Amino acid sequence: MIKQADFVIIVVPTPVTKAKDPDLKPVESASKIVGQNLKKGAIVVLESTVYPGVTEEIMGPILERESGMTCGKDFFIGFSPERINPDDEVHILKKIIKIVSGMDRKSTDDLCELLALVTNVYRAPDIKTAESAKVIEKVQRDLNLALMNELSMIFARLGLDTDEA
Question: What global pTM score does this model have?
């Protein structure tokens, strides 16, 4: 029950539109539901992949509007990107480093304390830095996949086995 939670973690898909723009409807919808049920003093953490600024500029205001409370006074926000890939048996929760940031020192401390119960944490200096780290991670993954796909096509034309190369 959200109304009783000291910590609320929002993890929703963040697809892109046909125009390749971020579709923040899932984040906005989840924020609205959480805001309508938010307990005073709670910390709301976004884990979805978003561009820098979404947590503070999109999620925070929705939570304020829906709860009637003030962010930074009545409730707090943070960002800690999801870093688990389905079917990856090597990088399991206990073995990853979880990037964590709250909107202030206390919320960051509280989030680090909570998440340290299940994994290793890295304290980011602020929410936008934590959001940026996730974007960098996604870009690096996509670039590596694209590079390997291109090399595989080139090697195939040359009669080479990509796995052996």
Answer: 0.86
